Amino acid sequence: MTLSELTNERQGYSFGYLDAYAKRELRRRALKAIAIPGYQVPYASRELPIARGWGTGGLQVTLALVGPDSIVKVIDQGADDSVNAANLRRFIKRMSGASTTTDTLRATILQSRHRIPEEIMQEGQVLVLQVPDPEPLRRVQPDISKAAQLHADADYGQMWLGLYEQLVRFKQYVQGADYPSLVHGRYIMNPSPIPRWDTPKLHQAAHLTLLSAGREKRMYAVPPYTNVQPLEFDDVPFQIEDQTGRVCKTTGAANKFMNELPQDDGSATFELSDSGYAEKLKNDLAPGATYFDEQGNFYHDGYLKPPVRPA
Amino acid sequence: MIYPTYTPDEARDRETFLALMWALSYPGRIHDIGGAAHTHDTFSAIGAALLDLETSFFTPDKTLADELLRSGARHLPASEAAYHFYPALDGAALASITQANIGTMLRPDEGATLIIGCAFASGSTFSLAGPGIQTTQEIRLGGIPARFWGLRERAIRYPLGWDVYLIDHGHVIGLPRTTQVG
Q: What is the pTM of this model?
């Protein structure tokens, strides 16, 4: 045996950029996050060659998972071609040799900022969501130590009170993206700033979801086939954004989440937010089944209830 | 383009972690720990993937303990260790498990992780339910004394509790604290 056989060749970067200790820590934390759905597990959050707030939480999780056999998709607000998504995807590829795709159904790891794709993700896929603020109680309890105690006691009374106040003032829930949701009947989590349209997709999903906030150094998970319930009162159900009447100007798709494009005359046109799905429609490639069908019905029957306006 | 080298050590640790991650994500399903043929090799692979000087372990097996110590992790008493390795469950092992850390309400993630050797596809049949399982999942397990399930039931007061990996040769089944065993 020679010394060269015992050591690895000198290289500029560790595999996956992070060193072995960082990856082991992330992996240990990820396993505990999966074991306690919705609980925010603290982790060290290393420095990366992008600024905090630009997806470092999601990127660290992806780097702990990725290998040469991985197929990675990165989206930003649904788009594969935004600057942030393109740079993250290129960085992940350069640090791991993973292949990349824009096809949701081909991806083994899908890192996303603020969207869940329209096509139904499958078993064995990992959705990594970038999280700017992991603490759902921040709106009612700015002290993070006190918020942790509220989570420990499952004392979510102030969240319910906030919801009630919204109904009293506006006759509807006014929280847009990042809608607080109860995971496995125990922890309230921020599902990251995905629109309300995407929140139900986490409920009883076939795939694993890992959510990570690099700046706040917190990671949490929604394991496959886990109950995720957006906060709602029995008599005023949670509502998704109404996409009725919105038709994509390039693909003709309806009842999907749309980007609104303001026009000079004050009107608006719409296009699909999910660029990978739009690409398939444009090229006549058969897309997979979607969470919402052409009529706007969610794939878990009875999960979303008809709207009710309080008197 | 030249990529950073995917070394054999890197590959072993990542593939072991992925097997553990999917085992915990889909409790009751059998996943393979890449390249590990024997239960002892699997324990070593899990130790290499998860342990370093930032964490701690407990095992009654002296040979395994010597091996795991090389990771830099501290060998602590059962009541304090983060990772417990039990190649077999005898009376002494069960006594140690009663002391395993279940975490606190503020930090339930401090609950221990138990890695236990057993035999799949023999012994009693159990029905599992909970997160990661669409309806129910049946498993057959041998080498796990009935008393173990009583200990698990008493330890788990969700979110408190410990999480279990069951190992048979190069295969692993995950039982997070959220899984109900019937």
A: 0.96
